[in-house]
UniProtKB/TrEMBL annotation:
UniProt keyword list: DNA damage, DNA repair, Nucleus
GO terms (BP aspect): DNA repair; iron-sulfur cluster assembly; protein maturation
UniProt keyword DNA damage present: yes
Stored InterPro entries: MMS19, MMS19_N
GO CC terms of this entry: cytosolic [4Fe-4S] assembly targeting complex; nucleus
Keyword Nucleus assigned: yes
Stretches assigned to the MMS19 N-terminal domain: 39-255
Protein name, as recorded: MMS19 nucleotide excision repair protein
Coiled coil: none
Family: Belongs to the MET18/MMS19 family.
Location in the cell: Nucleus
Protein's job: Key component of the cytosolic iron-sulfur protein assembly (CIA) complex, a multiprotein complex that mediates the incorporation of iron-sulfur cluster into apoproteins specifically involved in DNA metabolism and genomic integrity. In the CIA complex, MMS19 acts as an adapter between early-acting CIA components and a subset of cellular target iron-sulfur proteins.
Predominant cellular place of this UniProt entry's protein: nucleus
Amino acid sequence: MSVEEVDTLLQGVVTCGTNADEVTLEKLRGIPLLQLSRMMGKYLTGEEHVVNAVRVLGLATVNRRDRTIEEVDVMLRFFSRKLSSMQTIAVAVESTALLVRELSSEGPCTSDVFNVLHTEFLQSFSLQALPTNVRSWGYDVLRFTVTKETATWFTTPFLQVVLKSMDEENEPELLMRALELHHIIASYAGEDTMQPLLEEYFDSISSYFPVVFSQPHGCKVSKEDLRRVLSACMTHPLYLNICVPFLLSRMASPHPLLLSRNPRMCF
């Protein structure tokens, strides 16, 4: 396509509300990604259409046959920079999650991608301050970076950022994902790396004990699901010296139940 044809196409999907269907996206995916980013510059930097522009760029970034490692790095850094604005934070998390989902289907997280997601993405915003659907995309990114394969790159600062991202989660399905991440970290993080944060991590986990939960209609998570995954986390050998005194203290002096931020849940 000529520059004029591309500009007309972009004007339609970015400024005129034309649906960015697969036919349109395939045309955009035929343009080298960095070149497409430059051609979208006026939309990506102006306030009026930036949200639509970032979304279109995110969709055009995935399902490419010729995407390079350099392009992945550039796009992850670009989306991360958009996290600094309340106007674009949701679409930036969504676009990052779309790319991460595709990368995860191709193989484990690489060290280069891990470092970008740690330093550029996870440290740029507070996940728990965002709506549920946006947090769900954020957990896609967390799940990609927190695995048995990536554990060799875990550092104490990284684990601190991950804890901040998960701490006080109150949506049942997202809490399940958070606790599963807790278990992975407890299982594979190095002892020296984890030791400075051991009590903070256990405090975060144990704040959900005991589980008192009435499953809302349509919720995929049951009370037993939460009990099972919470038990697996709290009784992990890593926390043995902390968990036993904690449970004994609870048995001796029952702790009053406190309502969480979500009125449907009580832990």
